[in-house]
Amino acid sequence: MNRLLRDLKADLRYYRILDPSAEKRSDIILFSAGFHALLFYRIAHFLWSRRLRFLARFLSYSARILFSTDIHPAARIAGGVVIDHSIGVVIGSTASIGKGTLIYHGVTLGTRRIVKGKRHPDIGENVVIGANASILGPIVIGADAKIGANSVVITSVPSGATAVGVPARIIRDGFGESEQDYLFEESNVHAHT
Fold first, then answer.
1. What is the domain extent for residue 114?
2. Are 40 and 31 a contacting pair, CB within 8 Å?
3. CATH for 18
4. Which H or E element spans position 187?
5. Mean pLDDT per segment of 10 residues, for the chain of length 193 residues?
6. Helix crossing, 33-49 with 2-18: angle to 10°?
7. Torsion region of 69: left, alpha or beta (phi above 0 gives left; psi -120 to 50 gives alpha)
8. Which residues of 55-75 are buried (b: 16+ CB within 10 A; e: fewer)?
């Protein structure tokens, strides 16, 4: 129960940091559907971990109806995650998300194949996932990465990188170099050989 309360406090703190429209804590508590979806998830996860699976699933199902957000109660979401405009967010049962991550509407953390065991992505800390992006399979999105809106990510993304497109490709690596930088360096190498 202490962890549940600690995670909710972290959620509120990060909403104030990452959501510029959240002017007051009361605005978040009363009017943020993303925060409400996380609240339902956190209670459902608490019940799931206590083997109260029916109640956990019922709460998860209720959140799906109320907030159009489908977060499996077995998923592992650190305190301090922000779901902005929660409509259409889907988070699978073996997914994990690190603190400081910002998730926009329509995001799917799903699977590529119906298999037992690990099948959903692991999202690092301070990741930004753009609207309607799909991150599929047991891949890793490194800390501080950015996933562009409408992207479909099926391979791991290193820390600090930016990935966009269908299928997603890295356009900026963790060192600040863009795909164009690589092409330019490659053409220089060929020009001098």
1. 2-191
2. no
3. 2.160.10.10
4. helix 179-191
5. 91 91 88 95 97 97 96 98 94 97 97 92 98 98 97 97 95 64 40 41
6. 160
7. beta
8. ebeebbeebeeebbbbbbbbb
